[in-house]
């Protein structure tokens, strides 16, 4: 019985050995290695694609079976640096909106005479000089004009003048008057100084130069007239013949009225 059992085990082992020998195994492990290598390539491709989508600079894949990968964010650093550069270049000066707009203070003529019209003769050189006040941001250039409300004309004195601590302009009114199509009148004028980069009617901003104004007047000299030929048309003592006759009539009627009233009262014997 024991011998029979042992024989059965040996027969079973012999069958298993024969079956293992007859199984078609690959001649080498090359196929398995290809499978393993192909899997590594797919992992690397996946890591590279992910890095390209995220914008990173360099991808290093590990050849180990864990399939781990490390990425350097050099591209992100470059983008941050560029962003910082753009931000620094676009910075602007911040002005407190509570500050007053920039203006001028006249030097020539003196600021103390600004409330009184300064008269200039047409044909002379007219000079204006001024300093700036409450100016936080200086304009690159200024325009200087003079306006007259009577003829609604603007006279250009200077364009794109450089800005300094003190600015001045000299106007040759004689040269202008000789060739002018719209001559200077005996009228009041307004000197206007404003930023050349803006319109003359632009709204003044805090710290920036607004539309600065200064009033003055000009007159045209008249030819010489002898005193004997001069007639003052606006003098209060110069009465016309009609006015003289009216005054004589008024005085004459007053005298006649007084005399008539006195005779009337005396004839009636009325006593006061």
Task: Characterise the protein shown here.
- By secondary structure, the protein is an alpha+beta fold.
- It contains 5 helices and 10 strands.
- It has helices spanning 2-22, 30-54, 74-89, 173-179, 241-268; strands at 58-61, 69-72, 103-108, 119-121, 125-133, 141-148, 153-162, 166-172, 187-195, 212-219.
- The strands form 3 sheets. Strands 4-10-9-6-7 form a 5-stranded mixed beta sheet, with no helix packed on it. It has a 3-stranded antiparallel beta sheet with strand order 3-5-8.
- The radius of gyration is 54 Å and the shape is elongated.
- Mean pLDDT is 75; it is low at 39-43 and 45-90.
Topology diagram in text:
Blueprint: H1 2-22, H2 30-54, E1 58-61, E2 69-72, H3 74-89, E3 103-108, E4 119-121, E5 125-133, E6 141-148, E7 153-162, E8 166-172, H4 173-179, E9 187-195, E10 212-219, H5 241-268
Parallel strand pairs: 4-10
Antiparallel strand pairs: 1-2, 3-5, 5-8, 6-7, 6-9, 9-10
Quick description:
This protein is of the alpha+beta class and 272 residues long. It is built from 5 helices and 10 strands; from the N terminus they run H-H-E-E-H-E-E-E-E-E-E-H-E-E-H.
List keywords for this structure.
5-stranded mixed sheet, 5 helices, 36% helix, elongated, 272 residues, alpha+beta
Oligomer: single chain
Helix content: 25-40%
SSE string, helix = H, strand = E? HHEEHEEEEEEHEEH
Q: Largest sheet at a glance?
A: 5 strands, mixed
Can you tell me the residue ranges where pLDDT is under 50 for at least 5 consecutive residues?
A: 39-43, 45-90
Which structural class should the secondary elements be placed in? Answer: alpha+beta
Average pLDDT taken over every residue: 75
In total, the number of strands is 10
Radius of gyration: 54 Å
Q: What characteristic shape results from the CA principal axes?
A: elongated
Strand portion: 25-35%
- Order of strands across the widest beta sheet? 4-10-9-6-7
Q: Roughly how many Å apart are the termini?
A: 194 Å
How many helices? The count is: 5
